[in-house]
């Protein structure tokens, strides 16, 4: 075959490439793999095990004492007769924390006075609760502030009553 204008021979016709060339097959397989990975069904999410339910209880000071964060126990403390689960703040209230003296105890007077001293805590756990006599208006206001902060941040898990109180749980219950 020749070109009619120049009488030069035409190059031989090229053969059309097949779509099934090895590189196209590899690219197509890669595309299918990516589409599958993107659209494949996902396994259902697994939910973490829920913590055991917390039941509102009545505590006496000796019953509250073990809840000090030691031996994998939760951390509870009482403020103005309410018992709070402060386990989420274990770094502050648990062993080694700055407020560890209050864990498992009635922290009302210590928080009201802004003192972490051991003498702010009731010594006789079998005796009456601290009636908070002797606190000034500023100290009462500070304690109410702490109580509000705890109510916003932590769960109330019970109330604190004295040993022998009519509401106190009996031995073995």
Can you walk through the features of this model?
The protein has 173 residues and is an alpha+beta fold. It contains five helices and four strands. It has helices at 22-39, 61-64, 90-93, 108-113, 137-153, and strands at 57-59, 76-79, 82-85, 155-160. A four-stranded mixed β-sheet has the order 1-4-3-2. A hairpin with a 2-residue loop joins strand 2 (76-79) and strand 3. It starts with 21 loop residues before the first helix and ends in a 13-residue tail after the last strand. The relative contact order is 0.16. The mean pLDDT is 85.
Beta-strand content estimate: 5-15%
- What distance lies between the first and last C-alpha atoms, to the nearest angstrom? 110 Å
For the largest beta sheet, what order do the strands appear in spatially? 1-4-3-2
Task: Give a quick account of the main beta sheet: strands, pairing sense, barrel closure.
Answer: 4 strands, mixed
Tell me the helix content. Answer: 25-40%
Number of helices: 5
Q: What pattern of helices and strands is seen along the backbone?
A: HEHEEHHHE
Q: Would you report the number of β strands?
A: 4
Could you tell me the radius of gyration in angstroms? 37 Å
Structural class: alpha+beta
Unreliable stretches (pLDDT < 50, length at least 5) are: none
The best one-word shape is rod-shaped
User: For the residues shown, what is the average pLDDT?
Assistant: 85
In a nutshell, what does this entry contain?
The protein has helices at 22-39, 61-64, 90-93, 108-113, 137-153, and strands spanning 57-59, 76-79, 82-85, 155-160. It has 173 residues and is an alpha+beta fold. Strands 1-4-3-2 form a 4-stranded mixed β-sheet.
């Amino acid at each position: 075959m020749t070109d009619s204008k120049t009488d030069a021979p035409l190059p031989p016709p090229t053969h059309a490439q097949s779509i099934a060339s090895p590189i196209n097959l590899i690219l197509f397989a890669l595309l299918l793999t990516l589409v599958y990975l993107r659209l494949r069904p996902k396994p259902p999410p697994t939910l973490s095990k829920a913590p055991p339910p917390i039941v509102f209880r009545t505590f006496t000071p000796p019953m509250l004492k073990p809840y000090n964060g030691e031996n994998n126990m939760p951390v509870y403390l009482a403020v103005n007769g309410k018992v709070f689960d402060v386990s989420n703040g274990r770094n502050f209230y648990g062993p080694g924390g700055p407020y560890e003296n209050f864990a498992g105890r009635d922290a009302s007077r210590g928080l009201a006075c802004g003192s972490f001293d051991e003498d702010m805590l009731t010594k006789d756990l079998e005796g009456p609760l601290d009636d908070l006599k002797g606190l000034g208006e500023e100290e009462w206001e500070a304690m109410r502030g702490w109580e509000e902060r705890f109510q916003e941040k932590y769960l109330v898990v019970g109330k604190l009553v004295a040993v022998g109180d009519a509401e106190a749980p009996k031995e073995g219950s």
